[in-house]
């Protein structure tokens, strides 16, 4: 998972979805589908109960606007627009329900639906701001100034209970939401670790053979589209068995890590150095012709020849033999690897510590 730029984990989280999690646009659609008939029902009841014309009119307007918000989402597919539109509408709706004392004041208890929704569909920061704003608004509504402005029918005990219970619910929702976000982050990090482990070699940290094959296939596809050739270096540490036998397996492993580091140092960022087998490495050089590939091979070879590790106060170095292959015409990846392997074999036969271009 990327931690690029100044993105906070919260923003980062919204980019990913864990399997089974309800996507925010879907939840908003469900809530809209539930709210429209409910609002229509309460509007109809308000008409029947002879409430002021304002109430049924506003409830109907909210139902229509929620429908328009959903329609716009289906037409444009703009998730942020859908979410922001929905938040604005529900904040306005809950404010209206509270200050107009809809349903003789009982509609204010719908405010309890607000905290879980707001925390789920927006970032934690937005949820906190919305909840603190909501409680502040409610305290204002229940204050003597609110009474003077809106003439609320709520009893004192109801007001106290409403503020305490709603605050309790908001804090609970915040805690549960934090826990949900932390577990989601943990799951995403675990998935990223698994993905990394599946694609990389544990000893060297280089791409493993499976990942190298995948990159080769991608590069091959690009070659077929653009006809810009790519090259591969297939290399093998010389006389590695005798290094293991003389200095031990641990020293052998250290040399493998050293070779990997030399590859990293000598390759471009776009190249893929990979551990191909035990003491075999492959480097994929995208958009690289034969001449440049041979130059890179010789640079890598010299860097490895110059490097060494210290084992029990003894300096141990190694050399590598390299086959250098460049894709030609319509040949397959297998054919390219076969030609490159033959070149590697010739480098071994020719005395080792050599880079030999593949033949036809
Ligand atoms: N330490 C260590 N040794 C390994 C690893 N993987 C393979 N080897 C050893 O590498 C050696 C490879 O030897 P060979 O393929 O016979 O060839 P070589 O001795 O390198 O000789 P040439 O390739 O002909 O230059 C074997 O002894 C393997 O056991 C590893 O991960 N760590």
TrEMBL record:
Q: Which GO terms describe its molecular function?
A: diguanylate cyclase activity
Spans traversing the lipid bilayer: 22-44, 51-74, 86-114, 126-146, 158-176
State the source organism's domain of life.
Bacteria
Q: Does the keyword Transmembrane apply?
A: yes
* InterPro entries (alphabetical): Diguanylate_Cyclase, GGDEF_dom, Nucleotide_cyclase, Rev_trsase/Diguanyl_cyclase
The answer to whether UniProt assigns keyword Transmembrane helix to this entry is yes
Can you quote a single GO CC term?
Answer: plasma membrane
Query: What Pfam families has UniProt attached to this entry?
Result: GGDEF (PF00990)
**Keywords recorded for this protein, A-Z:** Membrane, Transmembrane, Transmembrane helix
Entry EC no(s)? 2.7.7.65
Q: What is this protein called?
A: diguanylate cyclase
Annotated source species: Marinobacter santoriniensis NKSG1
High-level lineage: Bacteria, Pseudomonadati, Pseudomonadota, Gammaproteobacteria, Pseudomonadales
């Amino acid at each position: 998972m990327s931690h690029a730029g100044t993105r906070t984990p919260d923003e980062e989280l919204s980019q990913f979805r864990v399997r089974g999690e309800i996507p925010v646009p879907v939840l908003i659609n469900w809530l809209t589908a539930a709210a429209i008939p409910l609002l229509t029902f309460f509007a109809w009841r308000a008409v029947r109960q002879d409430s002021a014309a304002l109430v049924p009119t506003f409830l109907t307007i909210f139902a229509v606007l929620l429908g328009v918000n959903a329609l716009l989402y289906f037409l444009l597919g703009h998730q942020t627009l859908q979410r922001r539109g929905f938040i604005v509408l529900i904040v306005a709706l809950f404010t209206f329900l509270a200050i107009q004392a809809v349903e003789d004041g009982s509609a204010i208890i719908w405010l309890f639906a607000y905290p879980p929704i707001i925390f789920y569909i927006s970032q934690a920061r937005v949820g906190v701001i919305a909840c603190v704003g909501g409680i502040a608004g409610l305290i204002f509504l229940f204050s003597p100034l609110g009474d003077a402005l809106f003439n609320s029918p709520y009893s004192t005990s109801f007001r106290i209970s409403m503020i305490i219970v709603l605050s309790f619910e908001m804090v609970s929702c915040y805690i549960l939401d934090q826990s949900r976000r932390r577990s989601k982050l943990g799951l995403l990090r675990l998935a990223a670790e698994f993905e990394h482990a599946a694609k990389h070699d544990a000893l060297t940290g280089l791409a493993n053979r499976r990942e190298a094959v995948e990159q080769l296939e991608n590069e091959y596809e690009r070659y077929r589209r653009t006809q810009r050739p790519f090259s591969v270096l297939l290399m093998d540490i010389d006389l590695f068995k005798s290094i293991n036998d003389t200095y031990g397996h641990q020293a052998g492993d250290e040399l493998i890590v050293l070779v990997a580091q030399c590859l990293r140092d000598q390759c471009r960022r776009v190249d893929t150095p990979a551990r191909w087998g035990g003491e075999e490495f492959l480097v994929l050089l995208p958009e690289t012709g034969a001449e440049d590939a041979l130059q890179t091979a010789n640079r890598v070879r010299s860097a490895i020849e110059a490097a060494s590790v210290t084992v029990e106060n003894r300096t141990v170095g190694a050399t590598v033999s390299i086959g250098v292959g460049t894709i030609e015409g319509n040949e397959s990846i297998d054919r390219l690897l076969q030609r490159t392997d033959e070149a590697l074999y010739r480098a071994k036969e020719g005395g080792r510590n050599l880079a030999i271009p593949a033949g036809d």
